[in-house]
Amino acid sequence: MTPSASVPEPPLDPEEWTDDEWISYLEQSDETFSDAFTQPVEPLLGKVTKSSGGQIIGNAMVGMAQAIYGKDKTEIAIVSEGQPASDDEPFKVTLDLDHPEDSTVVFRTPPQTESSSE
Hints:
two-stranded antiparallel sheet, 3 helices, 2 strands, about 35% helix, elongated
């Protein structure tokens, strides 16, 4: 959108105008250009990011970031304190952190209760 005829063109040398003239020019140009920005930005961004060109550029930017800074090596560990193991659990897990192949899981069969037979 171009400024209307009522808004004067600024001079080539900014020092030719006083501060009041600049303020007046800025106020008039704000009113003139205010209608140009009524369309929301989100639909335009969606068109760009979902296009094939946007996808290629986005992946290229991610690749460059990984090449410069390295991949994110943050490991997420969820640690919660559990209850102490009891003998009546249906299984027992023993983890060997130094030799994981030696870790074991032992399943216990529940004790058989005497059923009354008729």
